[in-house]
């Protein structure tokens, strides 16, 4: 009932907001329409940021379908550090962010980042990096944090596809056009340097760019540009890696439906261990009566289902991020009818980061709950522990240095040829190659088991975890593999490649034209995980095989622990690596089935051939212009998907008892698949009045299935050894039928008001099939107890051993149901020159509201992930007399970020909180103020003025999953054009 009331209040608030906007827009437009004509002509010259807004409005108005653009001045006059952040200002576009606050991926109109097709100069691009912290980026998303804004001239988001547009973006297409010499005829030079200071890091970094171009005789042109960035990062926060509940025995809960919500990752001991403290008697049985007596006011069902963090911990990530990008572009125009161009790019990013945290072990621990308080009523469907004391506890210190490097090179030559007044031809060849490497070892000492550690836990927006152990004292820690301590060697290598050719021929003029063409694209990606954990762990333990225990080095781990930031311990990794032979083991690390992020070793190569036919034209209807386009695109996809699989050597079946088994047989397995799709589309734009445009579009678009889900193999990478993911090679692509209708009112220069309603009917969405099987069932896939990591072996042992423990296997299949995404987009750019006595003020507002509804098979609980129901971006600006100031407020309503069954808890999913951020940017153009050519422009920007925290929760709003505080960033710069 409460949720229904909340929805009603939210809907009422939303309706009021729209009504207010409508009334205000009517008042403003009336003021503009009724303003008396001036007695003498006035000429108002608009340049800079407002000029770019005017270009965006003109581009939007002249389009037939639904599209939005951002132009160079608009891009350059915001504190955006990459393309993703710039795109966030377009209606219907949301951005996923790194824990440092930096934008990484974009999504359009209610579908995830993998449903957005990203193009570089009109051709596909793939980046090999792994996305945000702890993400895999093994789907079809493209990381945009590698690309700086300063080297691009125009960003276009197309929300309604045309037949001539490359397929693959069921949600929409983003095209990034890099700078070319004829963007500025003659000599052009620009220089930009910015000093940046992160509030949390407390140190200065820098970024900048230099672009130089020249054209000769309106025939030749050459442009070169370079952009760089060196950032000091430091983010603090709280993490859990999920929540879990106890796996009570029959003696501890005599109900036949115990642990009915799932989970059950940790075990409460059958008897009180020695050194448990808290007045407990060693050896006393811990049964149902004990648990009820020591948790007064709770039922056994509440104790059974109450959730605690799997690894509740404070964390810090700090270090350096550096990137450099260079572009080289040439143009040749031998005549007005012939144009050749070549664009090339090189970009590299290098991150050297350290991450440390101190975790309370819940996932496979053996704590004894005392005096717990829970929220959530009778806990029949689960609840959250609000406070409690936990005896027999243990801490886990996790230190992980990251060394990441990603590179991207690309080149795309092309031409445009006007063969006659009515015949045009264009063509392009493209090639990109991206590589990524990461080394991310882990050193994880623990506090000793049965040492009397007691945890006091208090839940909250930022939970408090305190204990009777000084976790900041290096002497409190031991690297004991038999008690959960571990080290791991993990590395990941990725490579992507795109290559293709496309051409089209157009006959006709503005009144009517017909266009046909083809495109061939070959897009490949290979992910290779490497792991030498067992060898390193054996060496650290006692330099012997299958070692379990601390060893002399493990007992002396305190000698390698140092005080880190934020009262967290860190590791002197250079000394530790030298003492344990890390470098040699890293170089010899064999290929593994998956990385420590969970990304599977795999390969995909997609060769697509597309043919299209499209008509465009303009016809008069009631003395007004009607623009249209209509066409069909046919595409054939040939997929080759590979997985690195491990199977049991068949000779082991005939070995005598007690014999040493042969090692598993590991090999690449590939499958081929071919399918076809036909994608029709049509759009209309009608000038209902001089400044009023009606627009409509209907289309079919597609996004191919997740490459990681297509692999013919298995992923069993969880340290808890509780879940396995099976590949689904037969998954079909997602098909979306799209309907759009909009009305736009243009008020002159940059001003306009637009409203668009849209609907997407998505077929082919997937559902997870979860099956609980004994661990022994994984032997068919080559997974046995002997080839697990020591950490996984310990997790199985804690659940009864390899013969008793169970595993949840997850696989995907296409559901026959339908996902319907409906939405409303409002856009408003309003100069206030005619309403205020001071020229130069204005504001802009974009508002997107989305509703999802699934029906049919598999629809229960299905939702497109990471899609806020409401998002908006409001800006107020002033630009005049050489001064520019702008405030921008971004808001995204909280949304569901994962599917259910998190950590084996049936109904548990991950959600994000509402996100709000306020940014400020300003510029002082000394050339205009002092009337001096080539004087510089001074800039001052502040990102995240409100010091926003990014938070996510697990199933219940009071179960904090992650909470990160990136802090404010100050940027002071100088920009010149000459």
TrEMBL record:
Domain of life assignment: Bacteria
TonB-dependent receptor-like beta-barrel domain residues: 449-945
Signal peptide location: 1-33
Family: Belongs to the TonB-dependent receptor family.
Primary localization class, coarse: membrane
Family annotation (NCBIfam families): TonB-Xanth-Caul
Compartments, as annotated in UniProt: Cell outer membrane
Keywords, in A-Z order: Cell outer membrane, Membrane, Receptor, Signal, TonB box
Entry keyword annotation includes Membrane: yes
Identification of the protein by name: TonB-dependent receptor
GO cellular component: cell outer membrane
Matching Pfam families: Plug (PF07715), TonB_dep_Rec_b-barrel (PF00593)
Ranges of residues in domain TonB-dependent receptor plug: 60-173
């Amino acid at each position: 009932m409460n949720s229904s009331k909340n929805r009603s209040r939210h809907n009422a608030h939303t309706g009021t907001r729209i009504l207010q906007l409508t009334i205000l827009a009517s008042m403003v437009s009336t003021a503009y329409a009724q303003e008396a004509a001036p007695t003498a002509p006035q000429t108002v010259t608009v340049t800079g940021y407002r000029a770019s807004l005017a270009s965006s409005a003109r581009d939007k108005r002249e389009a037939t379908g639904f599209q939005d653009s951002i132009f160079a001045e608009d891009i350059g006059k915001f504190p955006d550090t990459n393309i993703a952040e710039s795109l966030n200002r377009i209606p219907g576009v949301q951005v996923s962010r790194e824990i440092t606050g930096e934008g990484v991926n974009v999504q359009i109109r209610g579908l995830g980042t993998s449903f957005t097709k990203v193009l570089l100069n009109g051709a596909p691009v793939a980046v090999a990096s792994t996305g945000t912290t702890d993400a895999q980026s093994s789907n079809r998303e493209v990381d945009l944090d590698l690309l700086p804004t300063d080297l691009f001239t125009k960003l276009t988001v197309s929300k309604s596809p045309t037949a001539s547009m490359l397929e693959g973006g069921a949600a929409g297409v983003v095209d990034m056009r890099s700078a070319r010499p004829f963007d500025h005829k003659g000599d052009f030079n620009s220089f930009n340097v910015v000093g940046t200071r992160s509030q949390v890091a407390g140190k200065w970094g820098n970024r900048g760019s230099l672009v130089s171009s020249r054209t000769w005789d309106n025939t030749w042109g050459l442009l070169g540009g370079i952009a760089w960035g060196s950032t000091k990062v430091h983010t603090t926060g709280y993490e859990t890696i999920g929540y879990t509940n106890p796996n009570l025995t029959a003696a501890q809960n005599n109900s036949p439906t115990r642990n009915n919500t799932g989970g059950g990752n940790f075990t409460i001991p059958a008897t009180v261990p020695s050194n448990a403290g808290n007045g407990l008697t060693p050896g006393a049985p811990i049964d149902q009566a004990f648990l009820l007596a020591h948790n007064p006011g709770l039922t056994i069902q509440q104790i059974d289902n109450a959730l605690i963090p799997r690894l509740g911990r404070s964390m810090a990530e700090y270090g350096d991020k550096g990137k450099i990008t260079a572009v080289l572009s040439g143009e040749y125009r031998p005549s007005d009818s012939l144009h050749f161009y070549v664009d090339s790019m090189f970009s590299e990013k290098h991150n050297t980061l350290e991450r440390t945290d101190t975790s309370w072990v819940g996932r496979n621990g053996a704590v004894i709950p005392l005096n717990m308080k829970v929220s959530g009523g009778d806990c029949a469907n689960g609840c959250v522990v609000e406070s409690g004391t936990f005896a027999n506890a243990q801490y886990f210190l996790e230190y992980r240095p990251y060394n990441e490097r990603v590179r991207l090179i690309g080149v795309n030559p092309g031409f445009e040829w006007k063969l006659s007044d009515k015949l045009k031809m264009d063509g392009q060849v493209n090639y990109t190659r991206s590589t990524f490497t990461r080394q991310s070892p882990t050193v994880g000492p623990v506090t000793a088991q049965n040492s009397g550690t007691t945890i006091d836990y208090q839940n909250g927006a930022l939970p408090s975890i305190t204990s009777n152990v000084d976790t900041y004292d290096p002497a409190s820690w031991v690297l004991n593999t038999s008690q959960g301590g571990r080290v791991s060697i993990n590395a990941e290598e990725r490579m992507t490649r795109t290559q293709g050719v496309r051409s089209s021929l157009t006959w006709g003029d503005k009144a009517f034209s017909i266009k046909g063409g083809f495109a061939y694209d070959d897009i490949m990606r290979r992910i290779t995980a490497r792991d030498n954990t067992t060898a390193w762990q054996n060496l650290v333990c006692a330099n012997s095989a299958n070692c379990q225990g601390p060893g002399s080095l493990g007992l002396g781990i305190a000698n390698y622990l140092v005080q880190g930031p934020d009262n967290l311990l860190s590791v002197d990794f250079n000394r530790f690596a030298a003492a344990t032979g890390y470098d040699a083991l890293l170089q010899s690390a064999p290929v593994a089935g998956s990385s420590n992020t969970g990304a599977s070793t795999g390969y995909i190569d997609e060769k697509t051939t597309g043919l299209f036919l499209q008509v465009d034209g303009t016809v008069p209807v009631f003395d007004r212009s009607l623009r249209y386009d209509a066409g069909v695109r046919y595409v054939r996809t040939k997929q080759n998907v590979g997985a690195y699989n491990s199977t049991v050597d068949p000779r082991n079946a005939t070995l005598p008892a007690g014999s040493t088994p042969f090692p598993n047989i590991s090999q690449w397995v590939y499958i081929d698949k071919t399918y076809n799709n036909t994608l029709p589309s049509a759009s209309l734009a009608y000038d209902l009045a001089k400044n009023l445009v009606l627009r409509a579009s209907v289309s079919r678009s597609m996004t191919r299935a997740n490459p990681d889900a297509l692999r013919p193999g298995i992923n069993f990478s969880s340290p808890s050894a509780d879940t396995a993911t099976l590949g689904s090679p037969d998954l079909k692509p997602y098909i979306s039928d799209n309907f759009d209708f909009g009305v736009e009112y243009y008020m002159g220069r940059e001003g306009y008001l637009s409203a668009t309603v849209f609907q997407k009917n998505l077929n082919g969405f997937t559902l997870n099939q979860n099956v609980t099987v004994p661990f022994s069932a994984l032997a068919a896939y080559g997974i046995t107890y002997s080839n697990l990591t020591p950490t996984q072996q310990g997790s199985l042992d804690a659940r009864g051993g390899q013969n008793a423990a169970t595993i949840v296997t997850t696989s995907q299949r296409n559901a026959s149901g339908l996902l319907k995404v409906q939405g409303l987009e409002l856009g408003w750019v309003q100069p206030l020159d005619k309403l205020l006595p001071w020229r130069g003020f204005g504001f802009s507002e974009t508002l997107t509201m989305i509703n999802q509804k699934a029906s049919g098979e598999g629809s229960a609980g299905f939702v497109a992930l990471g899609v806020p129901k409401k998002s908006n971006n409001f800006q107020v600006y002033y630009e005049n007399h050489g001064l520019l100031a702008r405030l921008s407020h971004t808001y995204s309503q909280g949304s569901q970020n994962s599917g259910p069954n998190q950590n084996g808890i049936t109904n548990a999913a991950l959600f994000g909180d509402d996100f709000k951020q306020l940014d400020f940017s300003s510029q002082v153009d000394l050339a205009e103020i002092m009337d001096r050519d080539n004087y510089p422009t001074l800039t001052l920007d502040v990102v995240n003025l409100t010091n926003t925290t990014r938070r996510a929760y697990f199933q219940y709003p009071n179960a904090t999953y992650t909470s990160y505080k990136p802090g404010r960033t100050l940027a002071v710069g100088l920009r010149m054009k000459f």
